[in-house]
Amino acid sequence: GTLNVSAAKINLAGVRNRNGEIFRSGLLTSTTSNGTAGNAIINAGDLSISDGAEIAASTSGTGKAGDIIINASGVELNRNVRILASSTGSGTAGNINLTTTGRIRAT
């Protein structure tokens, strides 16, 4: 299904290293089979992604990865973040659509 997140402010931050395996905080959709991954739709006044966090839609199977759709007044990307639509299987990667009415700041 679709991952729908709407808020005045959204803050995604941080990673955790557990026994050498990295776990990123974030909003994620994926499929490992022939089904389509859900879309990630984010509507925010301000969206901040920092310290290794991510928004991702992926496939490792034959199904299509979901699309990432971001609508925000302002976007800040700080310190090793990812907005990623990917395929490691035979399925196609999704699309990323970022729409903002204000600033996009990346550091």
Give the secondary structure arrangement, pairings included.
Elements: E1 3-13, E2 15-18, E3 21-24, E4 26-31, E5 40-50, E6 54-59, E7 68-78, E8 82-87, E9 96-100, E10 104-106
Short summary of the structure?
The protein has strands at residues 3-13, 15-18, 21-24, 26-31, 40-50, 54-59, 68-78, 82-87, 96-100, 104-106.
Can you put this structure into words, describing what you see?
The structure is a single chain. The chain is an all-beta fold. The protein is built from no helices and ten strands. The strands form three sheets. Strands 1, 5, 7, 9 and 10 form a five-stranded parallel beta sheet that branches. It has a three-stranded parallel beta sheet with strand order 4-6-8, with no helix packed on it. The termini are far apart.
Assembly state: single chain
Strand content is over 45%
The shape is globular
How large is the radius of gyration? 14 Å
Helix content: under 10%
Number of helices in the DSSP assignment:
0
Structural class: mainly beta
Give me the count of strands: 10
| Euclidean distance between termini CA atoms | 33 Å
Largest sheet: 5 strands, parallel
Averaged pLDDT, please? 95
Low-confidence stretches: none
**What order do the helices and strands follow?**
EEEEEEEEEE
What tags apply to this protein structure?
single chain; 107 residues; mainly beta; five-stranded parallel β-sheet; three-stranded parallel β-sheet; 0% helix; globular
